[in-house]
Amino acid sequence: MKRGVYILPNGLTLCGMFFGFFSILASLNGDYVLAAWMILVANIFDGLDGWVARLTNTATRFGIELDSLSDLVAFGVAPSIMMFNWVFHPFGRLGAAVAFLYVSCGALRLARYNVQMVSTEKKYFTGMPIPGAATILSTLVIFWHSQWDKAPAKNYGVLALTAVLSILMISTLRFHGLKELDMKSRKPFLFLVLMMVFLIVVFVHPPTVLFVFAFSYMLWGIVENLYMFYKHRKYGTASSEVLQQESSDKREIAKKKEVR
Prior knowledge:
The chain is mainly α. It has a domain at 7-187: CDP-alcohol phosphotransferase transmembrane (TM) domain (Four Helix Bundle (Hemerythrin (Met), subunit A)). Helix content is 77%, strand content 2%. It has helices spanning 7-28, 32-55, 61-88, 93-116, 130-147, 156-170, 189-204, 206-259; strands at residues 125-126, 174-175. It has a two-stranded antiparallel sheet. The relative contact order is 0.09.
């Protein structure tokens, strides 16, 4: 700290925190669409600060801790307040409990990430990353208001979705992220074409497309982990059967030798 801090990556982190705080103010004022868009903007800065830190070799422990605090504000507290004011308040204590569940699970997710980032988290995300969960909730709000004028009245589906996202954040399920893409290496030409197609599709109707992509990210993670569990169980059972057969064969050979 005596040598100073790097301004560029930490400044981008503070920008993400600012938009998260702006989202909280918008939620308190009843402008939930603006609050949701501010969370998405904070998500952009959350990706930029890490990318800039790695590109300029300015990643520090101070920056990592500041990034976690910023994520808790922008993707933990801000979505929780937005969802409570938007649809949870008619539930009373139940709505407040689910809102706090989201914040607490997000904090636990960030704390675990800081501990495991040099091991498993360096390869993939263990549990849904908190920006991903916040993106699903914010795109849900944007999509809803693009189709209907009023907020959903005491919607149990939204309440259940928030609870599921909370559990997914602290789960041990494997989720992928942009950090697995090596942007420095050459990619097939088709990769650039797919990026262009994605931008065009988003431009057609951003609320619907962004919500579909965000929700698909959650479903893809669940389906992939179920497939991995099934595959591991299948091959694990097959391996145990092979080992049992080999041990049985060895016993039979031993018995034949004793008879001889």
